[in-house]
């Protein structure tokens, strides 16, 4: 235990796991890992929705083509439209699940920081002097 004016080397130790001011390591920290997964899910969902809406769904009707060929083209575009709708729904689901996961991580981190123990301010050096009773003051009369 150090006095108020001395610098304590134990205050430089890494914070506890429950502290909200810790370094993030995605390999060992589940919050960081799931945060990255939720970000990837939202990004992939946005890409899927973009692809689903930007792919052309309609065909140009050509009256000079024979009926069987036009029917085959119409069936192809009908099936393509069905699959693009599935891609859009999958993108929406990924965005929704990624958002839910990210929200759950944010709420758990918020409550973890709320329930964290208060900081022990006696181990924090305020200045280089041994008398720290004038913290923030410009005059130092003893």
Automatic annotation (TrEMBL):
Keywords: Membrane, Transmembrane, Transmembrane helix. InterPro entries: TMEM74-like. The chain crosses the membrane at residues 33-54, 86-114. The keyword Transmembrane helix applies. Residues 1-13 have a biased composition (Polar residues). Residues 1-20 are annotated as: Disordered. Coiled coil: none annotated. This is Uncharacterized protein. It comes from Paralvinella palmiformis.
């Amino acid at each position: 235990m150090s006095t108020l004016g001395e610098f304590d080397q134990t205050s430089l130790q890494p914070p506890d796991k429950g502290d909200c001011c810790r370094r993030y390591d995605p390999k060992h920290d589940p919050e960081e890992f799931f945060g990255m997964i939720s970000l990837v899910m939202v990004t992939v969902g946005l890409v899927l929705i973009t692809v689903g809406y930007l792919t052309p769904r309609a065909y140009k009707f050509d009256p000079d083509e024979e009926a069987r060929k036009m029917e085959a083209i119409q069936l192809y575009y009908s099936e393509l439209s069905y699959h693009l709708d599935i891609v859009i729904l999958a993108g929406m689901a990924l965005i929704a699940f990624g958002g839910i996961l990210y929200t759950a991580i944010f709420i758990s981190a918020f409550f973890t920081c709320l329930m964290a123990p208060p900081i022990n301010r006696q181990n924090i050096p305020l200045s280089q002097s041994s008398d720290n009773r004038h913290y923030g003051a410009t005059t130092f009369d003893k």
